[in-house]
Amino acid sequence: MNSHPDPPGRRERAKQDKRVRIMEAGRALFAEHGVGGVTTQQIADRADVAIGTLYLYASTKAELLILVQNQKFATAIDDGLTAAYIAARAGAPTIGAVLGLVEPVVACIREQPENGRTYLHELVSGDPSEPHRREGLALSARLEDGLAAILTDDPDIGPSDAYSLARVVTSIIHVTTIATVHLHETPAEILDQIRQQVTAVLPPPPHGITATNTSFRLRKRNQ
Fold first, then answer.
1. 80 and 98 in contact (C-beta within 8 Å)?
2. Which of 2, 67, 104, 135 is at 20 to 30 A from 61, Cα to Cα?
3. Nearest to 26 by CA among 53, 48, 46, 55
4. Could you tell me the residue range of the domain that residue 33 belongs to?
5. What's the sign of the alpha-carbon dihedral 58, 60, 66, 69?
6. Based on the domain organization, do 71 and 179 belong to the same domain?
7. How many domains does the chain have?
8. What confidence category does residue 3 fall into, taking pLDDT thresholds of 50, 70 and 90?
9. What gap in Å lies between CA 30 and CA 172, rounded to an integer?
């Protein structure tokens, strides 16, 4: 008996090819012009598909932006979890591991500020049952879980407060990256703002994270 799954049929391959072309076209145009400077027709033309076909994959420009940004957001979280794991292995204090996780996320959001701000706004204000938003919200929850894993192993925090603090840190990231007052700041300046705010809500030294335990938790969550 053949245990290997059947290869996708011609129709499925064509559908996947169109999805890839649409995502690549959206990614390129959003990067070049920002979400406000791009129309869905331009994306359809760049992808060489009919506008009706594009709407089968994303019914609005906002949904298309979310589709594109989700992929980048997922990569940033993966990179952040790896950096946090390395920091924990090196015995970094809690704030060091937190910033290791946060830095790639900030870089992703601020790569094209208009796109990043619109993406986060659409995630929290749009229909959470819409598939692309649901995926984006799941990524946000994964980021929050990663933060909680770091905070849980701080002996001055512990599991009872870790998830509440992780939500506070997530809120700090969200507000600081999209606030108009920080619009013209560099990712490094944004990260420093986040560092100051997170440091203010964390228990003070001398204690840091337990490197071995946190490394294990982060490794398990990243698999």
1. no
2. 104
3. 46
4. 7-57
5. positive
6. yes
7. 2
8. low
9. 26
Tell me the pTM: 0.83
How confident is the model over 96-150, as pLDDT tens digits?
999 999 999 999 999 999 999 999 999 989 899 999 999 999 999 999 999 999 9
For residues 26 and 64, the answer to whether their CB atoms sit within 8 Å is yes
- Each residue's pLDDT tens digit, 13-49: 888 899 999 999 999 999 999 999 999 999 999 999 9
Position 26, amino acid: G
Cα–Cα distance, 35 to 38 (Å, whole number): 6
DSSP annotation of 112 reads S
* Residue 184 included in any domain: yes
What is d(CA 23, CA 28) in angstroms, rounded to the nearest whole number?
9
pLDDT at 205: 63
Dig out the tokens for 26 from the structure: 């959206």
| Whether residue 206 has a cis bond before it, omega within 30° of 0 | yes
Looking at the chain, list the stretches that DSSP marks H as alpha helix, in order from N- to C-terminal side: 10-33, 40-47, 51-57, 61-89, 94-110, 113-125, 131-152, 159-178, 187-201, 211-222
pLDDT tier, 183 (very low <50, low <70, confident <90, very high otherwise): confident
Q: Is there a single domain that holds both residue 129 and residue 204?
A: yes
> Do 125 and 197 fall into the same domain?
yes
Region at 127 (left for phi over 0; alpha for psi -120 to 50; beta for the rest): beta
94 contacts 151 by C-beta, under 8 angstroms: yes
